[in-house]
Amino acid sequence: MIELKEGELAPIIQNNPYALVAITKHGVELSRRLHKLFSQTDLYYMSKFEKGDEEAKGIQLFSGSVRILLPTLFQQYKGIIMIISLGAVVRMIAPILKDKKTDPAVVVIDDRGENVISVLSGHLGGANELTRQVAAALEARPIITTASDVQKTIPVDLFGAHFGWIWDSPDKLTPVSASVVNEEHVAVVQESGEPNWWLYDIPIPKNIVRYPSIKEAIQAKPNAALIVTHRLLQQDEEIILENGIVFRPKSVVIGMGCNRGTSPEEIESVIQDTLLELTISIKSVKAICTIDLKKDEAGLLEVVEKYGWDFICYSPGELNMAVIEAPSKTVYKYTGAYGVSEPAVRLYTGAEKLALVKKKSGNVTISVGIIPFPKEGRL
Fold it and tell me: Which of 65, 127, 217, 320 pairs as cysteine with 105 (C-beta 3.0–4.6 A)?
C-alpha cells in the first residue's frame, strides 16, 4: 500500500502508459471495470475500498490525499484518467502544471461513467484521443471542447503528426491555430510528404486554400500559412512565416557508404554539410540506407540512434538490381555490389531522380533522395 506524505513523491510502480485513479465507492467499481476494458492502465484507488484481490490484479492502493499522489503521476505517466469531479481535478492539478508540450493528458470521468471529459493536453498530450478511446470502452459520451476538433478543421499542433511530421518552430502555433478556428484565410503549400492528411469525412473548409507554391501563397496575402516541405526556405520566401509554420515531413532518405571504422563525427558532419548544400532540412530525414556489410558499423549506428532515423541495409544482390549511374568495379571487388549509396536510396525511395546521385567526402560516400508521394488529393 502507498502511504502518501506531504512533500514526498509517492513510491509507485509504473507498468503502463496511463494511470487510472478513483477515490469513491462508485468510482472504484467503475475503475475496476475500465481497468479490464482498457489494458494500458495502472489502477490506483483508496485503501478503504480494498477488496482483497488487488495484489493479484496489479492494483495499487493508497492512503492519504490523492492530491499528494498527482505530482508523481504527472512525472511518470503519458496520461492520467481520474474518476473524480472536474472541479476538484482542476484545483488539484493547477499547482503542478508546467507546459503544454510536457504536461500529460488528463481525462476526467463522472462517478456514473456517463461522461468522459478531455481536461488537459488535448492535442499534444493526446487527451482528446484518449477521451474517445475511454468513452468507447465505457459506451459513454466523449466531451471534447478543443475548437479544431469541434469544428472539424486542422489541429495545427498535430498537423501531420500521425505521419511523423514535425514543425520547425512552435512560436506561431497559437496565432496560426487562431486563424484556422476563426475561419480566416489560411494558405497551405505542400511540396513533399504524405498527401492524405485531411482526416475528416467532410470537405476541407473554404477558408483553407491550397497554393502550388510559396510565391503564389505570398501573393494571396493569407492571414496564416502552413508550409509542408523538406526544403530550407529562401530569404524571399520567409515573409510567409510572419504568421506561418513550416512542417517537416519525413521524406528525405540518405544513402551512405563508408570505410570501416569511420567516426560518427565525420559521418554526421558529411550529412549536415551535404544537406545544407542541397538546402534540405535535416529534420526531414527519415532513414539512412546502406549495404548489409555495414549493419554493424558503429559510426552509422551511433548517428541513426542519435537522430532516431530508420537504418536500412540491403544485400549486394538487391543493390545490383537498382539503376546505378556510375557503377564501380572497385566497390564490386570489395562488396559484391557495383554501388552502395546511390542504389540504396533508389531502392528505398523508388525515385527516378535523386537530389544527389553520389558524392565522396573523406571516408564517406553519400547520396540523397526524396520519397515521391502520389499527388492525387494533395493540397
Answer: 127
